[in-house]
Every structure is written in structure tokens, then in C-alpha cells.
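Suppose you are handed only these lines of text.
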Amino acid sequence: MDPLDIMTNLERVIPYYQAIFSADRQEVIGYEVLGRIQMETADVHSLGAFFHDTSIPDEYRLEVEKVILNQALTAFIEEKSGLLLFINQNAQLLLVDQGESLLELLLSYVPKGLKLENIVLELDEHAYIGDIENLQHLISYYRTFGIQIAVSNIGEAGSNLDRIGRLSPNILKVDLQILRQSHEVSTHQDVLFSLAVLSRKIGATLLYENIEASYQLQYAWRHGGRYYQGFYLHRPGPTFIPEDYGKSVLIEKFQQFIRYEKRKLEAIQQLTEMLQDKIQQLISKHKKMEELDLWLQLIAKEFSDISFRMYICDENGFQLSANLMKENGNWKVKPEYKMKNWSWRPYFLEYVMKMRVERKGLLSDIYSDIESGESVRTFSFPISPNRYLYIDLAYDFLYENQDFL
Ligand code: CA
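From them, the structure of the protein bound to calcium ion can be written out as follows.
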């Protein structure tokens, strides 16, 4: 829409609300305020593009925003609900007057019943190009009034995790739209995963937005999402909705996700036990381990269908055997791997300790193999004191049973 059409039709500018749901209570915990304009044709247009267009003068955008906020705050107070109200703010615009005019506006609603701790300022990290310290100061200032901070529009490659960490938001909003793009899915998943880790480290609540399908909700549920938002649960509308609006869907979906997850975990448990039994039998059959490479070759024969690489390490991660690698269907001995050290790999020592204490084998999570780039899992097993056998399971084998992936 033409910005002038918007400026000359301010009385047609209205707020829309999109509900945000919580996983723990399966209820609405708040709303994001979105700008809309209702034209004569009864068409309602989003003002998103208008607010993001930096070629439109600041005063115009601030004025339209004020119209929306006044209506939203009035309606919100009437609800007396104690829910959260997420207000989108452009950090750049906010800093023009050090956030004073917005604060004044919010404070003017306090006598009417607004609780500032129910206000969440939603800042778009990507849109802010200025000095992070200025933003940090502004945020701490707002915090002294009890206002909460959410950082949104993260989840795209190139997000600066350090910057986000320094803002220490109460809520991280992660956009799940990128899950829809089929190319480079795994790279995106890794970025999303690192955001989940970050939110845990800095103690921020993770909110996944743009959930438009069941699989995205499942992703959010599996990856530490406490809050959910998106068309799949609620389309933005001009009014607030009952708090239990999404409850039955969420409960039904959670049960489905839990069933799926349990089935997967059971399958992995069975695979672990199968591998463990098999190795235990082989160990009692081939007791002589003086020549580790020869012993490994005897064992490897039994794993030709499922593994592409096997080796033995001591508890400090030094490789005691050669690598056995499958090449064109045959096991090849690679002596150059002897005495390499793997203790630097994530979870390596943790897994060794577990095996030592429990005297049982362990199946790793799924990860990308450095050499082959394929998704693999490693099964490890304590074969004798200070000797640990590692069996890398081939992607082809894991792929046969989707529960193993
Ligand atoms: Ca937003």
C-alpha cells in the first residue's frame, strides 16, 4: 500500500492480535500486536511492509505505531487478564529519543491498570545495525520498569549469537519458516539447534514463531520451545480469544509427539542391546586380544552389514588399533590412525566414564562424520579394562529404519 494512503486513513488503522501459547499449560499466555489497515472493501491489509520500509520517514511510522498501540493497550487493560502483550519495536527508531516517548506512552496507561511487567518489547535483532551497547543501555533502562525483552527474527544464518547473548533477553523468538526451505535443511537445523543451546545458556525462554504445520510444532516441542506462535495454532485477528483456545489441539499433538519419540527411543534402545549382545558373544568367542588389529578384523567380519569403520581406543582417547575401514565392500586396515587422539571430541570422555562405570555399551546421538559428511551414530563398548571398541554405524543401515535417524 502507498504510505500516503495509510497516513490519510489513520482512523482505519487497527491492531490485530496473534496468540502465543505455552507448552506447560497449553494455554494462551499472551499476544503479539500486529498492525493492520481496514479499507472500504472490507479488505484488511498488513502494515508489516510499511513498518519495515526505512525509506518512509520515521515520524510517519511512529505516528501509525502510536495509533495501533493506543488501541491495543486500551483493549488489553479492559481484559484484566494478566497475560503478556508483545509489542514490536524497531530498535533504530526506539533509540531516536532513547526510548522516552514509548515509555511515556506506556506509563500513561499504568493509572488505568496496565502492569508494565506484562509488556514484552519485541526487538528485531537483524534490523538493528547500530552499536550494541546503546541498545544494551536502553534495554536495562526499560528493565528497571519491569518491562520484558524479546529478541526476534533470529534463526537465519549469520545471526550473531554473541550480540544476542549480550542483550540477555527474557525471550528468544525463533522463526521456524526456514524449516520449510528444502535446500540446506541440515545447516538450518544446526543454526536452530545452536539457538536452543544459547537460550538455555543465557536463561531465556524459547518462543518458536511462524509455526504453520504440525511438523514445525513438533520441531518446536522437541527443541526446548516453551512458547509457540503461528497460523497452525491461531491466525491473527481483531479480538482476543479464550485462554484454552488451543488446548485440545496441543494436548492431542503432544501425545502424538510423545508416542513417536518413545517409539524412537525404544528402537534405539533395542539396537543398543542387540549390538551389545552381539559383541559380548564375540568377545567370549575371541578371547585373545594381544594382537588388537587381528582381533578387530575378526570382529569386523560380523559387522560388515552395518558398519563402515571400527577402531579401539584407551580411556584417554588414544587409538590403540589401526582403523578398519570399509572400501568397496571390503575391510581395509589403516595403520596410520594408530595413536591418534580423540579425547577432544564432544562427549568423548563423558561416554568413556559412563562405559567404565556401567560396564555397558553406548550408542551416540546422530552427528555428521568429519570424513564422510554422512549422518552416523557410533556404538562404543568397553571390551576390557582401558580398551574401548568404537563401531561407526553406516548411514545406509540407519536409514533402513527411520527410528534410528
Ligand atoms: Ca514480531
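What can we learn from it? The chain has a mean pLDDT of 92. Residues 32, 88, 122, 152 surround calcium ion (CB under 6 Å).
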